[in-house]
């Protein structure tokens, strides 16, 4: 079944189709392109037009271009437009317009992708589900996700992110969600926003794109919750708060055999579920997901049953057995809120020594030094035996730690990874956490290489 015909795509974008083609998917990367895909020649580090010949050779059904690239036949299957990115946006809006199912949009400083994947798993068996790939949540990721959406989609889950002011509202208006959820607000991209209040207002702009009488799912118990509520009220949304309190709340959770058995109350209905992780922050987001899916018309009991099918992905808090140690690989991202959640997960696990290996938290703005020092006062630190760290900012935490918890500090994650044999010992429970750009994942790689036969 085709996703777009040449005529439909031309009408949606105002472009000129060369040939009578039909495509079954959309790709922006020739390395992963599939036969029948529309190749979108975006300009980024490289100009996508340089790869059109390769895309067509790999079986692309057509290419979206602003001109016929050199070496490409004049009668090749093309969609020629004035500008490729606005054309992709137009295709995304058209994809949203022709779909009659429900759209759920998710944003937040932490947990967007894992929450999106929870929602995808929870919707199992409830029709045709479409969700963003990976972390496709920016100015090209959102329209790409919408353009890829099959017309008969019953539930779409759209992830929306930002790094600068003014990005979220246009993407939300493009997605036109029926339900919009904010996972949490935390110091991230502080250099661009200046304050937590500024981040909250930008995240709250997701409600500007809500369909009439849409639903806003917001975290309770935050300092900035009133700002989020004001944003939702201004959009005329029905507001559901989630967390330890609110209309959707986590009533209780109990760690058992590496899983978390939870009871929640979602707008008056009790829902029990089990997550294959011990991170309470995941359980709180799961409550928000269940509230969002219920508001979108999904079966709540079914969603509670299938949310347990979700697993934390690599680099985002997954717990694995690695030889004689337990590893929490959370090396993809870090800010004070997500680090606190990671430390709480580490503190809650039973076994041997609890060891935290931490890389710098980046893009925190003027208070970055104090935010790193303040990690020493995190309540979970009382249960953590040893902290190794890497990077110039983590040096401030290293110096603030009591002597008995102070492990190895290195100027870079690569340098720390080279000392992997000194970092852990058999029986340890190990958290590796840091911003992606701190490259603390090098320590995870070194730990894996040091174990010849990982235990499943």
Automatic annotation (TrEMBL):
NCBIfam families: murF. GO terms for biological process: cell division; cell wall organization; peptidoglycan biosynthetic process; regulation of cell shape. The keyword Transmembrane does not apply. GO terms for cellular component: cytoplasm. It catalyses: D-alanyl-D-alanine + UDP-N-acetyl-alpha-D-muramoyl-L-alanyl-gamma-D-glutamyl-meso-2,6-diaminopimelate + ATP = UDP-N-acetyl-alpha-D-muramoyl-L-alanyl-gamma-D-glutamyl-meso-2,6-diaminopimeloyl-D-alanyl-D-alanine + ADP + phosphate + H(+). It comes from Paracoccus amoyensis. ATP binds at residues 108-114. Keywords: ATP-binding, Cell cycle, Cell division, Cell shape, Cell wall biogenesis/degradation, Cytoplasm, Ligase, Nucleotide-binding, Peptidoglycan synthesis. It is found in: Cytoplasm. GO terms for molecular function: ATP binding; UDP-N-acetylmuramoyl-tripeptide-D-alanyl-D-alanine ligase activity. Involved in cell wall formation. Catalyzes the final step in the synthesis of UDP-N-acetylmuramoyl-pentapeptide, the precursor of murein. Belongs to the MurCDEF family. MurF subfamily. Pathway: Cell wall biogenesis; peptidoglycan biosynthesis. Residues 23-69 form the Mur ligase N-terminal catalytic domain. The keyword Membrane does not apply. Its main location: cytoplasm. Residues 323-435 form the Mur ligase C-terminal domain. SUPFAM superfamilies: MurD-like peptide ligases, catalytic domain (SSF53623), MurD-like peptide ligases, peptide-binding domain (SSF53244), MurE/MurF N-terminal domain (SSF63418). InterPro entries: Mur-like_cat_sf, Mur_ligase_C, Mur_ligase_C_dom_sf, Mur_ligase_cen, Mur_ligase_N, MurCDEF_CellWall_CoF430Synth, MurE/MurF_N, UDP-N-AcMur_synth. Residues 106-292 form the Mur ligase central domain. This is UDP-N-acetylmuramoyl-tripeptide--D-alanyl-D-alanine ligase. Pfam families: Mur_ligase, Mur_ligase_C, Mur_ligase_M. Its EC number is 6.3.2.10. It is an enzyme of class 6 (ligase).
């Amino acid at each position: 079944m085709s996703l777009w015909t040449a005529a439909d795509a031309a009408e949606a974008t105002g472009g000129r189709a060369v040939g009578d083609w039909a495509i079954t998917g959309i790709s922006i990367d020739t390395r992963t392109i599939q036969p029948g895909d529309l190749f979108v020649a975006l300009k980024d580090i490289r100009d996508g037009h340089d790869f059109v010949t390769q895309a067509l050779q790999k079986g692309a059904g057509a290419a979206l271009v602003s001109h016929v690239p050199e070496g490409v036949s004049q009668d090749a299957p093309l969609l020629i437009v004035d500008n490729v990115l606005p054309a992709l946006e137009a295709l995304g809006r058209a994809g949203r317009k022709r779909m009659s199912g429900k759209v759920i949009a998710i944003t937040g400083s932490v947990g967007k992708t894992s929450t999106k994947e929870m929602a995808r798993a929870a919707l199992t068996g409830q029709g045709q589900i479409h969700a963003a790939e990976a972390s496709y949540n920016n100015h090209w990721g959102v329209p790409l996700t919408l353009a890829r959406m099959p017309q008969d989609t019953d539930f779409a889950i759209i992830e929306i992110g930002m790094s600068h002011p003014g990005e979220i509202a246009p993407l939300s208006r493009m997605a036109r969600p029926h339900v919009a959820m904010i996972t949490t607000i935390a110091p991230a991209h502080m250099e661009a926003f200046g304050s937590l209040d500024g981040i909250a207002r930008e995240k709250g702009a997701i409600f500007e794109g809500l369909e009439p009488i849409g639903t806003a799912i917001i975290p309770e118990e935050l300092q900035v919750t009133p700002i989020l509520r004001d944003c939702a009220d201004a959009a005329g949304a029905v507001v559901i708060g989630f967390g330890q309190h609110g209309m959707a709340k986590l009533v209780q959770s109990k760690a058992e055999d590496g899983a978390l058995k939870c009871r929640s109350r979602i707008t008056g209905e009790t829902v029990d579920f089990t997550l294959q992780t011990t991170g309470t922050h995941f359980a709180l987001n799961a409550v928000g997901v269940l509230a969002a899916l219920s508001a979108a018309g999904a079966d709540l009991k079914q969603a509670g049953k299938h949310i347990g099918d979700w697993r934390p992905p690599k680099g985002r808090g997954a717990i694995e057995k690695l030889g004689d140690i337990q590893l929490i690989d959370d090396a993809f991202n870090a800010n004070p809120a997500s680090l606190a959640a990671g430390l709480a997960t580490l503190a809650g696990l039973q076994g041997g020594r609890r060891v935290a290996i931490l890389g710098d938290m980046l893009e925190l703005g003027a208070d970055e030094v104090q935010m790193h020092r303040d990690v020493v006062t995190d309540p979970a630190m009382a249960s953590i035996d040893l902290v190794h760290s890497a990077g110039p900012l983590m040096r401030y935490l290293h110096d603030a730690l009591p002597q008995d918890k102070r492990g190895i500090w290195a100027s870079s994650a690569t340098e720390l990874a080279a000392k992997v044999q000194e970092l852990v010992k058999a029986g340890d429970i190990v958290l590796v956490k840091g911003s992606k750009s701190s490259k603390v994942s090098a320590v995870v790689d070194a730990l894996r290489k040091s174990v010849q036969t990982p235990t499943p």
